[in-house]
Amino acid sequence: MSDQEKDPKNAEAQVETAEEQQAAKEAEAAQAEPSAPEEPSAAQEPSTEEKLAEAEVELAKVKKALSEADIRAQAEIQNVRKRAERDVQHARKFALEKFAGDLLSVADNLERGLAALDADDDALQGAREGIELTLKSLLDAFAKYNLEQISPSDEPFNPELHEAMTMVPVPNVEPNTVIDVLEKGYQLNGRLIRPARVIVSKAAE
Q1: What is the pLDDT of residue 42?
Q2: Which of 15, 49, 61, 160 has a CA positioned 20 to 30 A from the CA of residue 138?
Q3: How far is Cα 7 from Cα 136, in angstroms, rounded to an integer?
Q4: What is the mean pLDDT of each run of 10 residues along the chain (205 residues)?
Q5: For the whole model, what pTM was predicted?
Q6: Listing from the earlier edge strand, what are the strands of the sheet with 162-169?
Q7: DSSP annotation string for 77-97
Q8: Separation CA 126–CA 77 (nearest Å)
């Protein structure tokens, strides 16, 4: 008879010990095996505070964009207003340009009429005075509207205001000096309407 048959309690203890050892081995094996990757958890919904912060950021961007657009619009309005004011001022200054240009021939004819009358002829004295008064009234009206006469006799020649019709050598006169005015020039508010047509001196040959 074996020892286990002789002592059944001892045999049961050995069986339990073997089972425990087997269970321990299985547990160790399970720990040694790589664990399966955990599935990612679903994205969490942003909290109310986060949503509010995002809304404030977007609102700030909108406010900045509107502010910049308003600044640009105001600047453009100012530019348009300034351009309109310049155009109006320009129109006011030079609206009479064509009309004034047409009147220049009247002044020219009055001056030619005076030059043609003999200053020593007493019979023509009344005619001379009448033409002189008419010419003076016309020139006063020109001055009222800033239409200025250019009569550069004995002045240096200025190509911006004068038109040289011919050049003549003149002793004892500086070259490029206006020695005679054939037709007076005019400018309206500083803008040349007609240059003075002149004869200019040059150096003697």
Answers
A1: 46
A2: 160
A3: 160
A4: 50 56 68 53 71 86 87 87 82 76 90 88 89 93 91 94 94 92 92 94 84
A5: 0.55
A6: 162-169, 196-202, 178-183
A7: HHHHHHHHHHHHHHHHHHTTH
A8: 61
Three-state secondary structure readout of 46-57:
CCHHHHHHHHHH
Structure tokens at 196: 């003075």
Instruction: List the chain domain ranges.
Output: 52-95, 96-202
Top-tier CATH class for 96-202: mainly beta
Q: Token pair of 96, please?
A: 């009479």
- Sort residue 54 into left (φ over 0), alpha (ψ -120 to 50) or beta: alpha
Q: Please give the DSSP secondary-structure letter assigned to residue 173.
A: S
Q: What is the DSSP string of 35-49?
A: PPPPPPPPPPPPPHH
Separation of alpha carbons 104 and 142, rounded Å: 10
For residue 56, what are its two tokens? 């404030």
Q: How far is CA 174 from the centre of its chain?
A: 47
Q: What are phi and psi of 151, to 5 degrees?
A: -130, 85
- Rounded CA gap, 69 and 62, in Å? 11
pLDDT at 98: 82
